[in-house]
Every structure is written in structure tokens, then in C-alpha cells.
Amino acid sequence: MAFTGTIKDEILEQEEIAFYLLKHLLNNHFELLVKKYRLDQEKIQNDLKQLDENQTIMNLVEQIGKNRGALVSGGKVDNKRVSNILLQDFREGRIGRITLEKCE
Questions:
Q1: Tens digits of per-residue pLDDT, 19-37?
Q2: Is residue 2 a part of any domain in this protein?
């Protein structure tokens, strides 16, 4: 519910919501994620083999931030801004047609 904005953003930490959204997209909508944010698919697949999932997701935040220009002074990625971008894009359907329920 937090992904869709049904729960007010002020109640929950947006960076945490975006982290779990990115995790869902990585596991269930990989192609859409790569295409939308022009990510390096080979790098992500290598990260998944070599790193734990949480570190892979943090690397994705870095890639998305750099690709979208979500930087603060010193060229460091602004995680809060990346979180806002991810949630806004998801809520407005800009990532693609995505369902959150799993078909078994």
C-alpha cells in the first residue's frame, strides 16, 4: 500500500519504501527497471552473483541517481531524491504496467 501512496508519505520513511519497491522491481520486473533507468544489466547481474541483495539495491540507487542527475555537492547521490523519483515514477505508471500481486 505504501508503494502506491495509499498510506501517506509522512507516516513512513520514503527511502525505506523506495528500497523495498526497488527490491520488488529487481525480482519481478527486471527488464522494465533496466529500460526505464538505463541501467547496466550486466553490472546488475554481476552484483547479484557477488553481493548480497541489499548491497545490489544500494548500487542500483547509485546508478539511478547518477543517470537521473540526483546528485548533491561532490557528486554524491542524493538517496532521498532517488527515493522520490522511484516512488513518483511507479505511482504515475512511468516504469510500466506493474502488478504487485504474485500469481502462483
A1: 999 999 999 999 999 999 9
A2: no
